[in-house]
Design goal:
The chain contains twelve helices and no strands. It has 325 residues and is mainly alpha-helical. It has two domains: 133 residues, CDP-alcohol phosphotransferase transmembrane (TM) domain (Four Helix Bundle (Hemerythrin (Met), subunit A)); 142 residues.
Length: 325
């Protein structure tokens, strides 16, 4: 479990290996257009610079947390100019968030801690943003009741981001295998957690407990997907997935990736910026609850249907002819 807090010891030295822009991406299937056009090119240049000066991906992630939290603080003000500075800070934070993953792939410098930090970074940003909007709304005349939708929207955001990230990694697992995916499972994480002791590994065990709970939540929401993953590991764990299964899973699952993008950063932030310009930031909470949550529920339902379809096909030994579902 030492790899939880350490960079990969097999990594190449920063700057020793670089890769093309295309190879710094996870997959075109899971990338959103605004990311490919905007955030990834910026992140790639930042990653090249960081590799040159020897900065690690985890350091980049931590810096992004400061810029994201600063953005939330700046959204507290009703001065539009200050809000715009906050918007730029949030955009830069997301560029850094893109850069850390690209840097990790470029330098082969990946770690479990890096994945945990990367996922937690956005939560820190939006905790700051939600608190700022609640306080701002109270200054505008709202009662303390505004904290109710603020907290509900915050919990919704955590769940939406968790499932979007999970489904993306499931997709990458099927089309690229374990080397191209960051898909974890609670069974392996529980074993690693049990090997730690609170007396000797307090910090590592605390982080491992948090991440184990996070993964358990993802798995509990996707029971049919868990059955499919267990069957795939049992049947193809040693030989790898057959090509026709990869092709058919990609064909049926790729349309779902657009929903993971919708409930992630770009869509919510574009609307957040709009309401800040209109000086109606409180609307963001209700957008999160009543627009993005139904999209999450639809995404989960569709993913479970795809998983059930492939579980039946594999367990009955049928050929993998593509069929719409």
């Amino acid at each position: 479990m030492d790899n939880l807090l350490k960079e990969d010891p097999t990594k190449e030295l920063p700057g020793e290996k670089t890769t093309s822009f295309e190879n710094s991406l996870k997959s075109n299937d899971t990338e959103e257009q605004i990311d490919i056009w905007f955030y990834r090119p910026i992140g790639y240049q930042i990653a090249l610079f960081c590799a040159k000066i020897g900065m690690t991906p985890n350091t980049v992630t931590i810096i992004s947390i400061f810029f994201g939290v600063a953005a939330g603080i700046l959204f507290y003000s009703q001065d539009l100019l200050i809000n715009v500075i906050g918007m730029l800070s949030l955009v830069f934070a997301n560029s850094l968030d893109s850069a850390d993953g690209q840097l990790a792939r470029m330098t082969n410098n990946k770690s479990r801690l890096g994945r945990i930090l990367d996922g937690a970074a956005g939560d820190f940003w939006f905790i700051s943003i939600h608190v700022a909007i609640c306080l701002r709304s109270m200054n505008e005349g709202w009662t303390a009741l505004i904290w109710i939708p603020g907290v509900i929207a915050g919990g919704s955001h955590v769940l939406q981001s968790a499932m979007a990230d999970y489904y993306r990694n499931v997709h990458l697992f099927f089309i690229k295998g374990t080397s191209g995916s960051e898909l974890d499972n609670s069974r392996d994480l529980q074993r690693e957690y049990d090997e730690l002791t609170w007396s000797k590994n307090f910090g590592m065990k605390f982080i491992a407990r948090f991440y184990l709970n996070y993964t358990n939540m993802q798995e509990s929401i996707s029971p049919k997907l868990q059955k499919l993953l267990a069957l795939v590991r049992e049947k193809y764990g040693k030989t790898g997935l057959p090509q026709n299964l990869i092709v058919d899973f990609r064909a049926q699952n790729k349309p779902l990736m657009k929903y993971t993008n919708i409930i992630q950063f770009n869509t919510r932030v574009l609307f957040l910026f709009l309401w800040l310009f209109l000086d109606q930031a409180w609307i963001y909470f209700f957008f999160d609850i009543f627009i993005l949550n139904p999209i999450l529920m639809y995404m989960v339902t569709r993913q479970e249907k795809v998983s059930g379809y492939f579980y039946e096909k594999i367990s009955t030994g049928n050929n993998y002819g593509f069929k719409g579902i």
